[in-house]
Amino acid sequence: MPFTTTHLRLISPLIHPSSPSIRSLVSANTKPFRLSASSAAMDSNSSCMLVLSGKSLAENEIAESLKSNSTLKLPDNSEVSIHLQSEIVKQESFDVELFMNSLATNRFGRLLIWSPRLPSTHDVVSHNFCELPVGAVCVADVQFKGRGRSKNAWESPKGCLMFSFTIQMEDGRVVPLLQYVASLALTEAINYVCSRDGLPCLDIKIKWPNDLYLNGIKVGGILCTSTYRTKKFNVSIGIGLNVNNEEPTTCLNAVLRKLSDSTYQFRREDVIAAFFNKFETFYDTFINQGFQTLEELYYKTWLHR
Ligand SMILES: O=C(O)CCCC[C@@H]1SC[C@@H]2NC(=O)N[C@@H]21
Hints:
By secondary structure, this protein is of the alpha+beta class. The chain has eight helices and eleven strands. It has a single domain, classed as 2-Layer Sandwich (BirA Bifunctional Protein, domain 2), CATH 3.30.930.10. Helix 4 links the parallel strand 5 and strand 6. Keywords: Ligase.
């Protein structure tokens, strides 16, 4: 695995003390309560915090209902506390506003579940698949049971972009191709951010089937799992991309620093929003015209050429 679990220091989000849902977390005479994600990060038995938000009113209503019905569960039934983004006063971690403002999709990424630390984003979306709208995404700053392909563990420290989202398909024959659509959307998202922000182009390539390599070193991977239910394939797509953690190999920002004098840093929020923007376009092409329309670009991005 390319990533280590060193440097797990987390920045705490600040929760609004008047929120009834977090009253239990606030002692009677306290000032605004700072929920310590860092202490949670060190204790795998502690409750997992999920913060929900939506791109528009419709998704915010879904978020409210998921919260008020305590719908979301973890596979091992361990404790989960659910909050709305509107209850978070300040957050120096994943910047939900930045992500939502850059998101330009109709379906994907519009309902966001963010957590400072959880077992696996993939487990959250797969386990709660039927309760979530199609395209819902779960993002974590740190995972402590990150999953890779072939039952490998995916080490998931801070600085790595880690997310999983839901998608539903009717034609099982094309489900295996989804991983290629996702890997292509990820490389194109990185290329888009580079060109938009005037950065040098990074040599980001896909190694078959869906690993991402930067200058010959693995920096990302994709995990697709599916179940068949009521004539539909419920597919969970999980992506790990090392944006800002150099240990033990490399990351986007380390390579960028070598290529450019600028102090620019890739932000996870920019990359994930660009990913969904690309993915939605590619997915529509894939469903309407087949993968062959994307094939040329896919092979152009291949490491194996
Ligand atoms: O083996 C691989 O290369 C695929 C790794 C996929 C890791 C991502 S990180 C976000 C999501 N949650 C997980 O537990 N795994 C995937």
